[in-house]
């Protein structure tokens, strides 16, 4: 006697309430559209494995459709992977289940939805696109996002001639960087701030200016504007030559633009989850991401969320090395409270988000 195959729901699937409904099969990296919202009741009622005939009956009860139509729907759901044989176990399921047990379900969804997408903007991509053509159409339709941020303030601090670095070997500098050690006590001065901000942001300025010059004739230059989505805010706590307060750094004009006056140690500490060292030094650098600049370059490619976080880490490392070379102890942290960070730097986090802090002292 032939044993009828039984089927159950895909073990790792997300349903998006859109028009039409969409099932994201996370381990397969595919999505399936459902033609009718009544199918939600059908899928929700599938609590144990059933054969195709029983599934058609369950579908008919949930939707009110006739059996023949329901059999066709069930067949399509099996073919698409929304339903699969109960004896099948995806080879990645055990590892994925471990993420869930650790309470990382949201991270697992992001991880699955942003991996395995074909690259079309790199040399020798398996499915190459023409970045110039794609971005030219986008530029013609919308215009590019602004390349530079300008803070509405009358108080600007022109940074002085940069101080020289101490005479130290690069290898010594790299080996000297530590996080959980006492502050060195080296005084932070405006010339040292000037050296720090100018050197760290030099490639950012070069990339943005090239993108500004060339994007109309070669739109793909926007993809080369690697640090173009990052802004730096400078929190002065005890800096000789800079009044206490929070400033936005204008890399094009090499100046600080006042955002908030006063001793903001407590606000910085609170925004970065109460960490004492976040505001325990003489200053802190808050790095933010302007989302539209990044999304404009990588529209319809949510994998780029990973990319911008990687780039942000690269940029923060430039600050860490430069500060260490100047003789300071550093403390980096991405742990922050979004609303408090928004309030501190005056942003709306779905437009621009403070993400990373580097304290120094």
Automatic annotation (TrEMBL):
Alphabetized GO MF terms: oxidoreductase activity
UniProt-listed InterPro entries: Bacteriocin_Proc_Enz, Nitroreductase-like
Membrane-traversing stretches: none
UniProt-recorded name of the protein: Nitroreductase domain-containing protein
